[in-house]
Design brief:
The complex is a heterodimer of chains A (539) and B (943). By secondary structure, chain A is mainly alpha-helical. Chain A contains 20 helices and eleven strands. Classes of the chains: A mainly alpha (539), B mainly beta (943). At the A-B interface, helix 1, helix 2, helix 3, helix 5 and helix 6 of A face strand 15, strand 19, strand 20, strand 21 and strand 25 of B.
Amino acid sequence: MKKIIFPLLTTVLLLLTGGCKESIVDLQNQSQYSDATYYKSAPQFNEAVIATYSVLLDRGFYSRDWYFLFDLLGNEAERDAPLLGDLLQLHDYSFGTSHQQITDLWQSLYRIILRSNLVIGKASEWQPTLADDVAKKKQYIAEARFLKGYAEMYLVTLWGRVPLKPDYASANDFYASRASVADGWKAAEADLTAALTDLPVKYAEADRGRATQGAAIALLGRALLYQKKYAESAAQLEKLTKAPYTYKLNSSYDNQFSETNGASPETIFDVPHFWGGWGQGNAYYMFGGQEAWGGKASHTGRAQEYGWNDWRNVFISDAAVRSFTYKDEAGKTYIDPRAKLTFYGDAASGGDTDFCNACTGEPSVKDRGYKLIKLADGTTAYNYPYDKANGYRFRKYEPYEGAEQSGQPQSNVNSQVVRYADVLLMLAECYINTGKVADALPLINTVRSRVKSFTYTALGTQAQAMEKLMLERRLELTGEQSRYFDLLRWGVAKQTINAEKQLQIGRQPFQDKNILLPIPQLERDTNPGLSSDVQGGWN
Amino acid sequence: MANLSLATDVKTLQEVQVNIGYGSVARRDAVGALAVAGRKEFGDVNVQNISQLLQGKISGVQVVNDDGLPGSNTRIVVRGTGSFTNADPLYVIDNIQTGSGEFNALNPNDIENITVLKDAASIAIYGAKGANGVVLVTTKRAKAGTPKVTYNGYIGVSQPWKKLDILNAAQYIDLVKDIAVSQQTTLPAKLGTADVLTDRTNWQDAIYRSGQRQEHYLNINGGTDKVTYQASLGYTNQDAILIGRNFQRSNVRFGLEEKLGRTNRVRLGQTVNFRYQVQAGNPPSFIDALRMPPYAPIYDPANLGGYSKVTTINDLNDAYNPLTGVNLNESRYRDIQTYAQVYGEVDVIRGLTFRTQASFTFAANSGYSYTQANQNGNLTNANGVTEYYGYGITPLVENTLTFAREFGGIHSLNVVVGNTYKKGVLYRNVSLTGSDFPNDDIKNILVAPKSSITGGSAGQDAFLSYFGRVQYQLLNKYLLTASLRRDRSPAFPNNPSAYFPAVGVAWKLHEESFLKNISFISELKLRASWGKAGNDNIGYFRTSTNIWKGQGNNIVYSLGPDKGYVQGSTVNAAVNPTIQWEETTQTDVGLDLGMLNNKLAVTFDYYNRLNNGLLTNVYIPLSTGYGGPYDRTGTIPTNAGSAFNRGLELAVNYQGNIQAFQFSMGINGAYNKNQVSSLGTEGGIPIVAGGFDGVSSITRTAPGQPIGAFYGYVVDHVARDKADVTKYGVDKDGNSTYQDKLLPGDIIFRDLNGDGKVDEKDQTYLGSPIPSYTYGANLNAGYKGFDFMLSFQGVAGVQIVNALKYWTEGTTRPFNSSAILLNRWRKEGDVTSLPRAGQNANGNLNLRPSDRFVENGAYTRIRNITVGYRLPATLLSKITNNTLSSLRVYATGQNLFTFTKYSGYDPEISTKDGYGNFLFERGIDHGQYPQPCTFIFGLQVGF
């Protein structure tokens, strides 16, 4: 027995341990690729660029939070009762340092920077030989720099001194301290300048939605304008009015806020939205489901959330409504035609008094106090049930001309980031501020005549011209998250908003500190390089 | 079974062989701090899972229930919180190391005893896996003889032991009006009608119920000298105390053991455990039940799905009807696990034994959840199904060579060397979603017109270790044990191997002549040990950057005229190539004292466990851009610093009898101090975590404090009136200069640093989520055929953050709330501790992190009271014509009484899934399903 057992034992031991070489612990990741080997060819680099764009749909951005944040902060939207919780805090500036949407925006802006740095870092190491790939490499890096410049521009505008992340390697420098505002602008300008050099003027149709050279110029012009570098800004923006660029105003203002606005010659850069159904996505993905439980989706919730016949979280603010009524050059009260295109209301306000002009059949909602009416041209619509509760409501970006209700968040109307009318008005602002008031006149009139507003014969003094320009931006860009930035730039945010809020809510909530957003508490809790450099517990 | 043969020869207790991992020793020869709980300690009672057998039974061992739903898991915490990444101990079933999944899959009825290894000398043999203690499970062995059949079964009913007192309809409307005033909100027309003053639904009653439960267990075993066999069958069916959820578990177990050769020199064993369990239905959210307006009915035929809804437009309240998601849903989550063990043991030459053992786990899980189209709150939900399918395979092999021999009664030696490895471990799973079903007849993704993959993962695992241990005993008085283990882990490609040494000594004083004459001391042993263990529990592939495409590849952007989705990919996690093993160094000094012929046994231990290079994921700034979609910030894996647990453990057991009255008592208690001693180089900043709802954080982990200590502001009082606000300082506009936006009715917080204003520097430590004291006691008594058992368990020196208060007392927006809000501040001059309604959620207003949320988490819970009666054997065999050999009936009440000051549902708080980790976010009650109170009636029969 002994004789057998020893050899047997040795054999068994060898068999059993023979299988366990030291290398058995060298495992391969079976679920994810590694960045060391993944980014080697064009399709993968394209993915990295797409992921950078997709942050524009993430928390803080155009799927939801962006429009609430800046329509409320800019007092273009005023809360209705259903607006509750953290969003309600925006309307009276009562938010603190851990406000959800502000924190999310900060994080997403930095996420754009990380992702664009990844593209720039990895694609720079790429040595393609095919001509097509060489062009793509240039384009991808330029797109990344465009998005990075965009992010830097909004960080420095909203928060002032912010940490900068120059390259992909700096992603591992976690505890960056705050750079000066000047350095922040420098970084934004450098990235946008580099982007506009290498971006194509136009893409193939299948790539519609990507950043073009024109988009980079427009944003650089905006960045320069925000810094009051009027001449430099004008130099950029002027380019867009000439060949090779073919931008022009959309003949239909309404169409610029419709599901087909992506094809508009006025669109310079927008965020495309598309709801592909429950089979692949979740209609409510904008509530933090992005990249998580939300499935595949890119639509925006605005129509549903703002919609007076849906969740009606907000009114268009009384101040915004009032601005559409002003004096013409003869001193007579004038209601701007854009009132009808921008909001629903009563006849006196100039707002649209009916809706559902392209709907069919009887109203399905019975208790909202509207009914089918016959219009003068023989078509039908429902009367907009204006009263105190319904008040003035956004029409722009809403589906109500073609549908009675939105029903769920599913708007496919692309969000405007920068459009040609905005460029013309920015350029006019540059001219006015460099004393070329006369040059501004045709630009403003171009914008006005598209909607058949009366045209100015003259803009008056520089101050008068600026006043007209300010009004024009407000009328043209209501509900496009432009006004808050305009007021900050013009240095009139506190006085303007407090005056408007005094009438609306009986208080003047805008404090000096509100010129900047608070540094998010989470950033302060995790970044020792920054936390000692926050003034007044705010920014 | 014969648990009440208490007064048997108590000496045997000391001679009992206890498992020490890769071997066993007589209890009296043990060098380490280990504790055994067997059938007697468990009591003849029924529990939902194995861990609960240990609850309150062993000093220094805390059992934390994940929640009170049937089938939910538990965590065993040995000697406080050690590692940052994971507090789970290593589980070893019948000598083979395994995972918590296998452990939780065993039927508690199949367990003979559980040993917990606590000190370094004992756990070091398990090296990298042992840092949080080792739980050794021994299952019941078959006994040779004619087949013995036993049946255990019970039926019972569970009930919620507590409901919260909330507002009625009229009171709720009052609250909504107050909130509307504070927030300048126009009330919707509906809230002005008399209709909303009618109480229609008690939402707590609507979701809670009495749950039926039953269990049946049948065991057959027997055999010859050479072959023994056993088979057992178990079946459990439990309804949750919340509607909709049911749990069923079936266990089948077969075991064979063979002995070969004249002297039984070859021994073989095979065991197969099979477990099948089904969780059916989704439990309702009781947070929603608390938030729903009392005036809302349950049903509304006019609403899609047939259940009522409330909306912000009509009600200013968008709580979800908690019944919609339960009653319009059909779901089944199925788990199948087969766990097989085999071993072979050969006595090679005298004293030398070779053992090889292997285990194999095959786990398959799948589930589906189908929800009908419905409208709930503000949302319109389409019909749809989610399904998932997965499997995992885990083989493991261990070989040991043991040499044990005595030399002339002077030296006794036991040497073991061995290896263990896991190889070929793999798992795969995928989750799917389907939608656009034409109707609700078929609830299967295969008929869904649209479907897509939403996620999944695949992976491997491996592990390789060598170990050796020497146990030496001189003159049956002096004991020495030393061990060394080398582990190799996939977690650290740049640093895969680590060595873990340990040494322990013991001195049996009672064997010395100077103690032999002292008759009342039957045992006195001093023990000391020192050793190292490790931890590699940080996940794999954290040293290089992985590509992230979103959950189910959903990072997409729309391009082109059709705006089709184009796939994106990027990186989202920071990596750290330098991470390495975490090391635990533990010193233990102990004493075992037996008196009165060991009727009274006392065990005392002091330990000091130092964790160095704690592995953890440290939060990194938002400005890095890193972080997954579910993370508040990105994290980086790192060896973050060090912490210690120091403590004392005491266990006292007494057993005796007064004639026919037999009794035994066991009391155990432990004190533990957990403290972070340093934070590492990665930022070296306090770890701030524990945010909930609108509160950004409430824990802070920093040197000098326990891990995950609560941190925030201190409430002073609620400002009574304008004068009270003014008193603290106001500017020319009347705005408070002391505290941001302070108005009458708001909470005035304390200015701790005395600089005249309340800001973040006025925060302080508010308590610890880790109990300082844990204790338990068991009392068994028997008189003739009657038996009685009582056990209780508790913790003290611990705090809980009652995060549920954010909803029940936060008044951030109109939700139904706690009835104590009737005492809220409502007008100038009110003196109360509850602030005005409707000051909104905000990082620096009334709902800032503060002691407002922190409550005393101490509790004592009567776990079990059992009264049983066993029919006399003679009578029984007479009545049943020898068919039955034993019959016992019993009644048990579980969790009958809980003594606590905690105002939430249940002070037994774990960390709810999806709410971060057990370390930095422990002790925060987000609304955990409470433990039920259960009455059962049971029957034990021997055939």
